[in-house]
Specification:
The protein is of the alpha+beta class and about 55 residues long. It contains two helices and two strands; from the N terminus they run αβαβ. It is globular and about 35 Å long. The N and C termini lie far apart (about 35 Å).
């Protein structure tokens, strides 16, 4: 998703942004939000995805 295409619809000055997903997804969207001027302190995340358990 290219957040720059919807920036005017989603970026609010006092909003917090929550990202959930695997690490590559979170990194990409966090970097996109930061490049659009969102302070990192307003970006929150929870990592999840497939996990491999080793014996």
């Amino acid at each position: 998703m290219d957040l720059s295409l919807v920036r005017d619809d989603i970026l609010l000055p006092e909003a917090d942004y929550y990202l959930c997903g695997p690490i590559p997804f979170i990194r990409a969207h966090r970097d996109s939000l930061v490049s659009l001027g969102v302070p990192q302190s307003r970006i929150h995340y929870e990592i999840f995805g497939s996990h491999v358990l080793e014996d």
